[in-house]
Fold this protein.
Amino acid sequence: MYSKIDNKGNIITGTTVILIVSIMLIVIFIVNSINYMENENINSISNDNFKYIIKDYNNNLEQLGRDSIAEETEKLYHAHIIHDSRKDIKKILNNKLKEVNKEYKEKYGINIRSEVLSVESTDSPWKVLFKVRIKADKDTNQFDGILESNSSIEGLKDPLPYAKLPKIYNNINNDGKKIHYFQALAQYLRLHNVDSYESYILATSPLFIKKCPYDPYIHHGDGNTLKECLKQGYFHESADGSCYLCRLDGKGVCPHYGMEVFIQTHTPLTNESVSCSDHVVFHDRYTGEKLNKYDINSLILDSSHAKKYGLVHEDG
Ligand SMILES: [Zn+2]
Ligand SMILES: [Zn+2]
């Protein structure tokens, strides 16, 4: 008897739960739709002063985004390990925006609530895209929309070497211009069974990301172009190299359009070793040989990279 009532009870409870869940889903859907419909474009704002404030806020995102990325990079340079750079940068920027929102309240009497929606790689390796949802109101004016901003990563430090060779090797360092690998990179390559890893003892690479102006790259073989490129420490666009955000996560390659830089060896050894483009050193690990056997500063390069940059292996 009782068990029958219990069963009925269960059925009623079950039906009620399904009903409540359905209603909740419908409500969530409607609320989202309304929010979506309320999303505005800055240009739809009719009040000029209000529009100016929102535009000003949007313009500031570029520098704030860049500062947030730089802060994340500094963590690596201070021996921290990063697991999800996009998530960390979101958090850093959210905190910065809280302060900015207070400033705008004092300065313009505007209420702004903000939330960083995403930090994304773009089809340019030199830019990172930020999307920030803001809800703002001042007097009778309201704005609810998504602001977008591209931040340049040029001039920031290259995160990859410090992400790949954390302080456990403790003899990676920099002089404010170049990264010096001392024994660290050779030890890392030895652990990855690279032949002639000794070639990378005392190797160096540029500290700051600078975009190479010698484009198309095939002209690196002309005159002093390669020498100048290495002296300035330029980075190059590369579909095989990793993007800035993935570099922070310690990835030598990634699905985004990325960049590559030459890791320069300073060795009298002439054996074949791993090719010196950084995505090869830190991920692909195929071999190359010195462009000029007798030059201790010669790049160690595979034939396909040599071709891309218009360089030839000199016989000798
Ligand atoms: Zn170059
Ligand atoms: Zn990437």
Q: What stands out?
A: The pocket of zinc ion (ligand 1) is lined by residues 212, 214, 220, 229, 234, 236 (CB under 6 Å).
